[in-house]
Amino acid sequence: MGIRQWRNDFARSALPYAALAVISNEDIHGYELIVRLKEYGFGHVKGGVMYPILRRFEDDGLLEHYWDTTSHGPAKKMLRLTDEGRNELSGAENAWQDISRSLSMISKRGK
Q1: Dihedral sign, CA of 93, 99, 102, 104?
Q2: Is 62 exposed, middle or buried (0-12, 13-18, 19+ CB in 10 A)?
C-alpha cells in the first residue's frame, strides 16, 4: 500500500470530524463545505460521500438546517451545529488527540 492510499484512508476516517469542525466555524451549505475541505487538504470529497454524513448528523441532532434566501439565485440549504453537535465535536477532538498520541508513542518505540 502506497503513501497515497494511507493518506486517503486517514482522510476518509477523519472526514466526519473535519466536517463538524468546519461547520462549527460558520453556517455553511454543503457544496461550500466540500470546497473548504478541499482547501484544508482533503482532496476532492464527492457529494455521494459527504451528503450521507451530513444527513446522518442531522438525523442524530448534531446539525440543523435553514434556507438562505437572501442571496441571488436559488435558496441554499445552510447547515449549523447544534449544542449537541458542539458537544460531539469536543468528544471527537479528544478522541483524535488520544489516537494521535497513541500513534506517536507506537512510532517512537519502533525507532
Answers
A1: negative
A2: buried
Q: How many structural domains does the chain have?
A: 1
pLDDT band of residue 63 (cuts 50, 70, 90) is: very high
The residue written with cell numbers 449549523 in the block is 80
Instruction: Note the pLDDT tens digit of each residue in 83-111.
Output: 999 999 999 999 999 999 998 999 887 66
The answer to whether 30 and 80 are in contact (CB under 8 A) is no
CATH number at residue 17: 1.10.10.10
